[in-house]
Amino acid sequence: MTSSEDRYTPRVRQALVFTVQEALRLRHATADPEHILLGMLREGTGLATATLNNLGVDLDALRASVESRLTPGSKAVRGEIEYSPQASQVFDMAADEAEGLKCHYIGQEHFLLAMLRQEEGTVAKILSEKFDVTYELARAQVIAIIFKPADGKGKVKRYNLALPENLFREVEQLAEREHMTVLEVLRRSVKLGLLIAEVQQTPGASFIIREGKTERQLVLL
Fold first, then answer.
1. Could you read off the pLDDT of 148-166 as tens digits, one per residue?
2. Can you tell me the distance from the alpha carbon of 197 to that of 202, in angstroms, rounded to the nearest whole number?
3. N or C: which end of the chain has fewer CB within 10 A?
4. Residue 87: which domain range?
5. Residues 112, 79: Cα–Cα separation, whole Å
6. Number of domains forming the structure of the chain
7. Torsion sign over Cα 175, 179, 182, 184
């Protein structure tokens, strides 16, 4: 894996645990992109599976297609599972995809796009030949999911938001720690601010933050 590992979402980390387990189950000493995809399908809650669902892919059929291309080994594997050169390339390309979409985190959707970019790879061939899923279609769907309005309803009004540089950097750092986009952080902050404002309109009500045994009253200035 690469130095970008600290940007992996919890779902990616779990999928990679499953990736190793899938390789062991099939008695393979190395993990290929096919094992990574099986790991993501097994995890099942990331944007990779959401993207494939939206593109009409039958996930059970996809799993079966991938497994049909993998011949189980003759004996159990002992020792640490290593990633093949093709799988290592997926890690690097996933980081590139995240950067291209201006995401501060690296999610399963970026791994999916990376595997689809390997046009001669087994994963890309299965998805394109059996399920009509190409890199271009998947990337468009990922963008639609990531940047859709929070509630998915109604029209979107756009405003130009200017933040002091130090405040924007704090937002960026929070986004990096939480494996979110800056836009997601801003949305949550606005929603929290509206909730606090609503609470403070109620006589006798206050918004309390509890840290251990310490309580602090939150006031909007």
1. 765 545 555 555 566 787 8
2. 9
3. C
4. 3-146
5. 28
6. 2
7. negative
